[in-house]
Design brief:
Layout lengths: L1 H21 L3 E2 L2 E8 L6 H20 L3 E3 L2 E11 L4 H13 L6 E2 L4 H13 L4 E3 L15 E3 L9 H10 L6 E6 L3 H17 L2 E7 L8 H10 L3 E5 L1 H15 L6 E3 L4 H8 L7 E4 L8 E2 L3 E2 H12 L5 H20 L4 H9 L2 E4 L2 E4 L12 E8 L2 E8 L19
Parallel strand pairs: 2-4, 5-6, 6-7, 8-9, 8-10, 10-11, 11-12
Antiparallel strand pairs: 1-2, 3-4, 12-17, 13-14, 15-16, 17-18
């Protein structure tokens, strides 16, 4: 009898534990998602931006009726852990969310590095993950079936600049100068430029590496001065962009179009004033874009509401993170189920517009419906701002092209 009682107690405990894991994904009227996000460490600023975007979307969706599955309304909830900006820690936390907390649906972390660390874990456990901040091209070459990214991949960052240059050249190919840092991100960007050149019949006339310190690109600019390309593309993070503006002005190098990653009007004009004017900067999103949805309205609406909530304008990391929740909501409702495989299949069939942009996934999980944004730095009375000029269909300002020569500024 004592053994029987012990067996019953153990069995009851096992069933309770199993139940808590099996149904942790949905309890009562709540759908719980998991997220390991960088709240401390080197990525903490953008990690917080990521969390703010998630939280804003959670609150908005819950307030406006939640998620309808089987005719019943459910609310979203997120379990967060701090990955400390460490890939190993991120992978451990993904395991914890899945194995201990019973999470069946994941949101991505901040950065490609953290996403690369988590993706093998979610894939092995067949847990769908919608991520908003991992742009590395390699994420979409592994054959992952449970990874879906709402943002544009790194190889898409500057290809829109090549398309714009070709458009301005009457549809004919252009002559391209390239200068890229040797990090993984910039090399992914370079792949996109090379592919765009091939696709448009353009010619790459300069193919240079930026120095490791990102403090001198005079050698490249001397070639630009001699060869006179139609467009110069640079990817060297913020420091590389600042170096490019400084030396272009110092050396009085004229180029009809300059396009870079990791630059914006505030950072450039703070150090270089109006010398930064007319530079084209690649971004995932801008508030002036005219995309819209039923939850956030358009980009200007999102900007207003986010600023009221958090006291500062939303960076694109927050916007794309909010969009990830809209994708999850739509997938649950299309699947009309909480079964992870049915929800995964619904995610794979996503084809929707959000305030952040259009979202449609390829069979590799990459968003193939949203082009990158190019904004042009424009200055007035010493004050510089970002003006979206591409894609042309969604632009809010007209591109100044060619860039005025230094003697005419």
């Amino acid at each position: 009898m004592r053994n029987l009682k012990l067996s019953i107690v153990l069995l009851s405990g096992f069933l309770l534990a199993f139940s808590s894991i099996a149904f942790a994904k949905v309890k009562g009227d709540t759908i719980t998602l998991g997220a390991a996000v960088s709240l401390t460490g080197k990525y903490s600023t953008n990690g917080k931006n990521t969390k703010n975007g998630y939280d804003m979307a959670i609150n908005r969706i819950n307030k406006l009726g939640g998620v309808i599955v089987g005719g019943k309304s459910y609310k979203f909830k997120i379990i967060y852990y701090d990955d400390e900006s460490n890939g190993g820690r991120a992978a451990q936390l993904a395991e914890r969310l899945i194995k201990q907390d019973g999470i069946k649906y994941m949101l991505g972390p901040y950065s490609s590095g953290m996403t690369k660390a988590i993706a093998p874990v979610t894939e092995e456990n067949k847990i769908p993950m919608v991520e908003a901040n991992g742009a590395s091209r390699s994420l979409f070459t592994k054959g992952y079936k449970y990874l879906f990214a709402v943002l544009s991949a790194a190889n898409q960052y500057l290809e829109v600049a090549i398309d714009l240059a070709v458009e301005k050249n009457g549809g004919k190919g252009v002559r391209i100068a390239m200068a890229f840092e040797q990090d993984a991100f910039s090399q992914d960007v370079k792949i996109g430029v090379v592919e765009a050149a091939q696709r448009t019949g353009s010619e790459i006339v300069i193919d240079d590496n930026l120095p490791k310190e990102l403090n001198d690109m005079a050698a490249t600019l001397s070639k630009v001065k001699a060869l006179k390309p139609d467009v110069l593309v640079v990817s060297g993070h913020t420091k590389g962009a600042l170096t490019a503006i400084r030396q272009l002005s110092e050396m009085r190098v004229n180029v009809p179009m300059l396009a870079m990653t990791h630059c914006d009007a505030g950072k450039l004009s703070k150090q270089h004033g109006e010398k930064a004017e007319y530079a084209l900067c690649a971004a995932q999103w801008h508030k002036s874009l005219t995309y819209e949805d039923n939850y956030f309205g358009n980009g200007m609406d999102y900007d207003r509401d986010y600023t009221a909530e958090y006291g500062s304008a939303p960076p694109y990391q927050s916007a794309e993170s909010s969009a990830a929740l809209l994708v999850w909501k739509a997938a649950f409702e299309r699947a009309n189920s909480f079964d992870t495989e049915k929800v995964r299949d619904a995610l794979a069939k996503t084809d929707m517009q959000t305030f952040y942009g259009n979202i449609k996934f390829s069979n590799t999980g990459q968003n193939i419906a949203k082009p990158m944004v190019l904004f042009q730095v424009r200055c007035d009375g010493g004050k510089c701002a970002n003006k979206v000029v591409a894609p042309t269909k969604w632009a809010s300002a007209k591109l100044v092209h060619p860039v005025p020569t230094w003697s005419n500024r």
